[in-house]
Structures are given as structure tokens and as C-alpha cells.
Amino acid sequence: MWVCRALCRARAPAQLGQRLLPESCRRRPAAASFSASAEPFRVRALVYGHHGDPAKVVDLMDDPLCSSPLGNYGLLPQLPAVGGNEGVGQVIAVGSSVTGVKPGDWVIPANPGLGTWRTEAVFGEEELITVPSDIPLQSAATLGVNPCTAYRVLMDFERLRPGDSVIQNASNSAVGQAVIQIAAALGLRTINVLRDRPDLQKLTDRLKNLGADHVVTEEELRKPEMRSFFKDVPQPRLALNCVGGKSATELLRHLAPGGTMVTYGGMAKQPVIASVSQLIFKDLKLRGFWLSQWKKDHSPDQFKELILTLCALIRRGQLTAPACSEVPLQDYPCALEASMQPFVSSKQILTM
Q1: How far apart are CA 21 and CA 150, in angstroms?
Q2: Which of 57, 106, 194, 344 is found 20 to 30 A from 165 (Cα to Cα)?
Q3: Boundaries of each Enoyl reductase (ER) domain copy (predicted)?
Q4: Is residue 230 part of a domain?
């Protein structure tokens, strides 16, 4: 995550120059512009020169402050590249032709691949979206991907009404936590599936505090006793899958006739398998969702509208940031190691 402050300077007409500064430097006066012939300003960034184990390929480096080619999730970025798709920064100054942002604005990336694991950067204003500065900093830093995915998969595939049920796996993920809260705000019931783990009761309690109606394990979902469970709970019309394999098969088995399973991830790296009878006799629908594609199919204004809708939920206390651990940038190896551990339910946020 990218939690830092930003200084915007003119690099060229109609371009926003954004420098993300440490908290201790945010009050420093900003010059209106700087010469292309001046000594380049050096920034700290987490850079990888090839793909592999993050602990082995990511290094903290000093780079010149300049615009850099952007990568794109789903496509391989040009290497070497700066990591990070999410985060929030604060604009300190802007170029004379910039109209979309102003000093003091909080901004998040408009698209993936921006490279947010760095203290400072130069971006065009079209690459950023302003967010209200009256929401919690962690909420702003984690706003642009997971809550957006959660909202869209709940809204775009089935016409759900208050009282309807939704079932999902990996319910402790950042998307899963957002689904629980947004569904509760919409009056929907959630059936949340988890892998069995040592701290299951603690995690179950945390998800129920977020608004989860039911929490079951993968093993419990496979048991015949689940038939009696669905006598008291409406069969879900929508299933949300980010695991695949046997987990996805179980979600399909419990879907109501005519229901839809939306796959937005594949953590198990196993295929989604549906039986012929489920497709013919239950008329189940299998769909996929990728936020990057949704953004390609919709205008920037529609994405901004989505962001503001989520911010309204945050202000009302109906949507909070996922469990997070803040880690100073220089301690990035600890963040990388923690993120690779099994049964991790918190995001690692790099602070600068």
C-alpha cells in the first residue's frame, strides 16, 4: 500500500507532477516548477527487475523523480518496475494547466500498475482520482480495488432484494470483508465460507462483527447437514468465488436454481468445474469479473461515481478498511514475509 503525501509540480503543459513526500516533509514550501536541466530529485522505491519470489526480487532503491511507463494488472509491466497497485497520496502543488486536482487533495490511482511503492512520483492528472479527505487514511489507501470489486459483483449479476442470500468463499479476504459489509448495508444475508484454521473462532467473531450472518468452514459446507441449514436460510442466488477447485464446486452445489456464480480470483490455481446437470437442470450461470476490464468498459466518471458511493458507505460507518498492519517502507521485508504467510487476514500497508 501507498500511504504518503504528495507534491505536484509542472513537468510539462497539461501534466500533473506528483511527488509523494514523507509526513515530516509535507509542510515544505513547493516551488512552482523545476528545470529539466536541474539535478534530478532522488526518491526511494521498491523495485523489481525480474519476476520471482518477492523476498528475493524486490529491492529498496533510490531512483530519479520522473514519469515512468505504467504496467497493467493482467499484463506484465516493463522491467524494472515499481511495485504497488493501491495507496493514497496528498497533492502539494500542481502545474499551471492542471484542472482536475488541487493542492491538498487526497488522490488514489485511477488504474492498476501505477507503482505506488515509492515515496514520491510524477503522474499525469488523468492517472489519479481525488477522494474525500474526511475518511480514515487506511480506508482511502485500500479503496480502489477490493471494495470496488465487492460492490460490482454484488450489483451487476443478480437483482438481489433485501433478505436474499449470497454465499462466498475466502470470506476473510479484503474483498470478502467488503462483501460482508456492503451486503449488510443492502439488507442481504451472507453465508461466509472459510478454510479451517487454528484461530477459527477469533476470525468468525471478527467477521460477524462486520455483519456476517453465517460463517462455515469448507469441511462443514460438504456435510449432508447443510441441507437442514438451507431449510431456515434462503438458498443463495449469487455465489462469489475467488478460490476455484473443490471450493467453487461446493458453492455451485448450494446455489438456488437459476443462480449465478461469479469468479473473480483463483487462489487454489485449480479449474472451476460445473456438472452438466447443474447447467441443464438447475440453469446455473458461470460468470467472471475483472475490475480492470470493468473500468475499460466504463467511463472514468463512472469509476469516480463508484468511488464516491463507497466513500458514502464509509462515512456512514457501513464500510471499514480490512484488517491492516502498517509497516515503514524501510521494513518492507517484514511486510513481504507477512503477506506470504498462510491464513493471513490482514493487509500490509507501507507507510512513508
Answers
A1: 31
A2: 344
A3: 42-350
A4: yes
Length of the chain: 352
- Concerning whether 48 is annotated as a catalytic residue, the answer is no
The answer on 274 and 168 residing in a single domain is: yes
State the pTM of this model. 0.86
Is residue 312 a part of any domain in this protein? no
3-state helix, strand, coil in the chain (%, to 5): 30, 25, 45
pLDDT in tens, 254-297: 999 999 999 999 999 999 999 999 999 999 999 999 999 999 99
- Number of domains forming the structure of the chain: 2
- The domain spanning residue 221 has which CATH number? 3.40.50.720
pLDDT digits (tens, 9 = 90+) for 147-192: 999 999 999 999 999 999 999 999 999 999 999 999 999 999 999 9
End-to-end CA distance of the chain: 10
